[in-house]
Each structure stands twice: as structure tokens, then as C-alpha cells.
Amino acid sequence: MSKKVIITDMPVEYDGKQYFHTVSAIFEDNKCVMLNINNNNSITGNIYLGRVLNIVNNINSAFVSIDKDNTCYYSLTDNRRHYFFNPKNNTNVNQGDSILVQVKKDAVKTKPASLSSNIVISGYYVVLSTDVEGVLVSKKIHDSEHIIQLRHNLLDLLKEKFYNNPDIPDTHNISPGFIIRTNACNLSSVEDGVIEAEQLLNSFITILRKALYSKAPLLLKEEKPAYLDLINGIPQEELDEVITDSENIYTIINNSNHELLRSKKLRLYNDNMLALYKQYDISKEINNALSRKVWLKCGGYIIIEPTEAMTVIDVNSGKYVTRKKGTDASEDTYFTVNIQAAVEIARQLRIRNVSGIIMVDFINMNNQKHVEELINILKAELKKDPVTASVIDITKLGLVEVTRKRTGFPLKDSIIPQ
């Protein structure tokens, strides 16, 4: 399946107002399957030296200040390792402690941003993580000679540059490791992977040194633009082209993504007569993704209603009329509409970045084989989502329960500056 990424600065209209955003769109076989509006106010991925303001024992959590305007949630249940940068005589998190943290989720409405003690710095070929010992290899990679060699070289790099380096500051038991990404399968030279890993390790060492000699709260490292992570998350063999009409974006990608340059998959779009977002009709894709009603090819439609607790999706037969006659006509109508709806629902969840609990009310069918086929198709479409999404169950009322992991803001919330 061929994939093309479009990254452009463009106007976005919502609720009668116009905003200007950097928009990324992924097209699979010329159909848009994901939209991302770069939220300039997002702090996800930023690394801070935080200051513990208070401990809430009944929820086993702490609240940590990362700057004068942001107090974040830090779970003591989920975060078992704590990296302190102040004198300590115990291993417990106490009020006033300075700790190393990374933002994992932005604040949403009344919920504060959430923090993790696992520090992750992503590259194109490898990922540095404090939650990894040594060097791990992505489960999607089959062992090959150059992957085995890369793993060996990265282990040597960690020993030389970190574990056995007397110039490393007191790291308070922080021991980073590496994860080799699937993109490493396309390395033309093992050395390129080692060079990137060394850059990530040097960045991490700089963070530690800055934290050691600074006062909390303090921003230690700002996350790179979201579109870079988006590109890095697509396996090289599946990516046809990355197109942007912004010289600034082109330069940023140019300086950070070596494989795109070698494969010549990065292109700067220059056409004063037709803007890039108009060429790919991205405004229409955004408007469709903001609409509560989505039409299906057969004439049926789905209604998507986000609520505070969950997202509810209703499937309707609409204008669709089957050519079949007799008792099977209704069943055929419902089956056709439901199948198209399942495929479109999976796509809409990605495009809108819907997360949490999703309840889908498909049209009731009497044929159990049709029901089973519908669920299998929905599961198969959800597997295409890079964000974890899964079918949980069918309730006694026939509602299909789906969950999708929360990553960033829903599309509509990304449009309006927070």
C-alpha cells in the first residue's frame, strides 16, 4: 500500500472563524487516512526538571510543576523509577523534590497534562529510552546480519559513551538503552544508525548536565515538530513521497531525515497558481472530518457524536436500496451499509483522532454470519491504525464497544488555539 505525506501551512475554518495551521495529511492509495494539525501549544514530548508540589496518597499520585503556568499529574503507580536531582536520604517522592520527567499527554479540558519518568528521545532508526536495558530490536524486524551488527555497535556505544565514561555526571541510576526501529532495515550503512544513536545519547547527556546544575522547574528539551514523528513512524518501504510547499518545513526535514534525502522522497512543491492544500483538497477533508454526518458510497451514512464520557456512532441505511427482492432484501441492505460503515468508521477514528470509549450502533442484522464478518472487517481495519485501537465486545443491545488509545488532541480541539 503506497503512502504519501503532505505537509503544508494553510488556513483552516471552524465555527465561522479562520485559523492558520501547519497541517499534515497521510494519503494511502490517494485516499486521506490521517490528518494532523500541528498544535503549537502542545507540550507532549517535552522534557522537564519538575518540582513536586504535593503528594495525594489516596490516588497514589503527585502533582508536579513544570513551569509557572503548568502543574501536571504524575502517577506513582505507573512510574516506579524516579530520577531525583536534589539531595535525598530515601527513594520516595516527597514534596519539594526535583525530578526528571517527560510529558506524555497534554492537558484536556479539566484534566492536567500527565508526566512519565520514562524519558524517550526518538530518531529515525533508533529510539533512546530510560525504560530499556541495553539494546532491543523492534518485534517487526527479522534478524539480519546488519541488524545484528547494529545492535552490537550500539551496545559498544553505550559502554564507551555512557556506562564507562568518567565525564558523565552523577546520573542517579539513570541507565538509557536503545530500541532499533523498523526503519533500520533500510539502512544503507550500519554506521548511519550508530551516528544517529550517538546524537541521541549526546542529547540525553546534555539534558542530564543541565538538570544537575539547574533549579526546578525548567524546560530541558523541547519536542521536535509533530510532522517529523509522523514521517519517522512510517516504514520506509511504504512511503512513496513527502511533499511540502514550506521552505522552512523542507529545511527542517532536510536536516533531520537522511534516508528521505538518499531515497529522494522529499519534494518541495512550487506552484504559485495552485496551493498544495488545494491540489490535494485538504480543506474538504478537514471539513468532512468536522461534520457529524459522513456519507457512504452506497447512500447510507454514519453520525458521529462526541460526548464527555464517550463517542457514539450511529449507522443508518439512508438512501441505499438493494436490487434484491423478497425476504433477503432488508438483510442485504443492512449488511452492505454496515460493511461500508465499518471501513469508514476506522478511517474517521484516525482522521479525527477519536480516543477513549467508542460505542457503535450498527444496523441490526439477523444473519449471525453477517455479524461475524462485520466484526472481523472492523477488527482488520482497526489494525491498520498506528494508534492502538480494538474491538472489545458486543453488548446485549447489539452495540459494538471499541477503544482507542489517546494521543494528543482530537482534530477539532487542535484547530482552536488552547
Please state roughly what percent of the residues sit in beta strands, choosing from under 5%, 5-15%, 15-25%, 25-35%, 35-45% or over 45%.
25-35%
What's the arrangement of strands in the largest beta sheet?
A: 16-17-18-19-21-20
Average residue pLDDT: 90
Sheet bearing the most strands, described?
6 strands, mixed
Structural class: alpha+beta
CATH superfamily grouping of the largest domain: Nucleic acid-binding proteins
What is the CATH architecture assignment of the largest domain? Beta Barrel
The separation of the N and C termini measures 36 Å
User: How many individual domains?
Assistant: 3
User: In percent, how helical is the residue content?
Assistant: 25-40%
Low-confidence stretches: none
* CATH classification class of the largest domain: Mainly Beta
Describe this structure in words.
There is one protein chain. The chain is α+β, with helices and mostly antiparallel strands. The chain folds into 3 domains: 93 residues; 179 residues, Beta Barrel (OB fold (Dihydrolipoamide Acetyltransferase, E2P)); 124 residues, no CATH class. Helices cover 29% and strands 30% of the residues. The protein contains 10 helices and 21 strands. Strands 16-17-18-19-21-20 form a 6-stranded mixed beta sheet, with helices on one face. The chain has a 5-stranded mixed beta sheet with strand order 3-2-1-14-15, with helices on both faces. Strand 16 and strand 17 form a beta hairpin. It is globular.
